[in-house]
Design a protein that fits this description.
The protein is of the alpha+beta class and 127 residues long. It has one domain. The protein has two helices and seven strands. It has a seven-stranded antiparallel β-sheet, covered by helices on one side. A hairpin with a 2-residue loop joins β1 and β2. The longest helix has 14 residues. It is globular and about 45 Å long. The chain starts with a helix and ends in a 6-residue tail after the last helix. The mean pLDDT is 93.
Length: 127
């Protein structure tokens, strides 16, 4: 796989989601195996995901963050691999939920979108 293939897989993922109302996305290709994707996805229900992935194909991603907020801008969760919270067993990977920091394996955009879709579809007001 080359970075352009990864970018195409993200475009396909986003176009297949029925719960994304709007999107702003930027792809930067640094080489055939290195790139960055940044963006903001607006979901039904007013949820907003701001994200960044720095990708090296075939290697662990050096940097990522996924910030989900509700329609009022309140943070629901954030995944990242910033090198703090050394007490977490999955360091540097972790998830912020409110004031809590939980262990988390390295996560990708597809997994985060799936988590958000489940959250939206299981909300009491979504039925």
């Amino acid at each position: 796989m080359v970075i352009s293939d990864y970018f195409k897989s993200i475009e396909l993922l986003l176009s297949n989601s029925k719960l994304i109302a709007d999107k702003t996305i930027d792809f930067k290709e640094f080489s055939s195996s290195e790139g960055m994707v940044t963006g903001r996805l607006l979901f039904l229900g007013g949820y907003s995901l701001n994200f960044m992935e720095y990708i090296l194909i075939g290697k662990q991603r050096p940097k990522y963050r996924f910030n989900l907020s509700d329609s009022k801008g309140k943070l629901i969760f954030r995944y990242d691999n910033a090198p703090h919270h050394i007490e977490i067993s999955t360091y540097p990977h972790h998830k912020h939920i409110g004031k809590q920091v939980k262990s988390s394996e390295e996560i990708r955009l597809a997994e985060v979108i799936s988590e958000i879709e489940i959250l939206i579809l299981t909300e009491p007001n979504s039925k």
